Amino acid sequence: MAARGSPGGGDGIIVAVTLLARVNRAVAAVVGLSLLLTVALILAEVGLRATTRGMLGGTDEISGYVMAGASAWGFAFALLERAHVRIDLLHRRLPTLGRAALDLLATASIAVVAGLVAFHGWSVLAKTIARDSRSNTALEVPLWIPQSIWLAGWVWFAACALFLLVAGALLVARGAAGAAEAVIGMTDEVADELEGTA
Q: Which of 123, 167, 171, 190 is the most exposed place for a label (fewest CB within 10 A)?
């Protein structure tokens, strides 16, 4: 990920954001693999039921845990790939600096929400660990395992959002609002440019 002709420098910041995007793509590949394995598990369950050879059991519970973890870890990937929904009615009509300011506000909002969820998620996990809570099913899964995976995804999402916020703010402070838009912006033109320079 790089911004062509970005004024005021910021190449190091853009390289760091590019690296973060690559890490998130690797995480997304792992998440995708876990989803594929879950699908295979569900298909095996369906197949066993169809042949009356019994059933594996617990696939609905396991798939729920996988979906929760995949969603939490997918948020950061979506953030770096600019896949989160943003209403840009005003955004497109502003000059570069105004767009950068709105992008910073949006990124700050995401960081705050992700941070709040992670903060409150930790208290839930702490209670689960203290009580040694297990799922009320035949599997009796120790709930700290899926909750830890879910919470780690939210912490990673909050960290990525905070990193992008700092990166965008530094670029704007250096007078590189165009580069900041390339890092945290959501316009189609910027997305097309990043695709061409990644």
A: 123
